[in-house]
Amino acid sequence: MMIKIKTCLIAASLLIGLVFPASAQIGEARHNFSVGFNGGVNLNSASFTPTIKQNSLMGITGGLTARYISEKYFAMICGAQVELNFSQRGWDELFEIAGENGEPVKDTSRAYTRKLNYIDIPFLAHLAFGNEKGLQFFLNLGPQIGFLIGESEKTTNIDMNSLTNTQKAVYGGKLDNKFDYGIAGGGGVELRTKKAGSFLVEGRYYFALSDFYSTSKKDYFSRAAHGTITVKLTYLFDLKK
Fold first, then answer.
1. Is 25 helix (H, G, I), strand (E, B) or coil?
2. Which of 114, 205, 223, 233 has a 20 to 30 A CA-CA distance from 42?
3. How far is CA 21 from CA 18, 75, 85, in A?
């Protein structure tokens, strides 16, 4: 019972900044365990200091989802969710040239793209509001870790003999840090059915706290981290209600 209470209180504190008093009424216990799969798209960019101008880079994401609902606290359904996902990240550099009026315009003749494949494991507090046997709105928030399993780069019409200092720090090199961690959070809508399972649509943002390049005082970058917007669909079926 204490584990279920703590799960709900921690989730609520993370998502809405509210700490319930110890004397508050205990919610109704739940023991709903669901598993399933998810899939969607990533819109990727990377935060660099010094800055690298970028286009949004699209990638795919998908994997397995497991969720445990521990209790209902007033109108709030509380639980925890963990996922094991394959995720494509990276960045697409934006090149510019001077336009007719002197303003910079996109140069489509040159391109540099770095694609990175990760195995991501988010550990999420799950809060939902709505009909337990129908439509619900939910919020997910928690830490995420990732492991780099592959990387590639593609260049088009790049003069390798006239690279800037920023380009020299990126082009042709491998990432220094293969382990990634940060915070993931988002929300969406879930439709729970009696026999067909649950269908979820979610938007999520991942903010990396780690850097994928070395960022010590002797290194070129002082910040090099991922930022990813994800839109995904999830299907879950109950193993225990």
1. coil
2. 223
3. 10, 17, 36
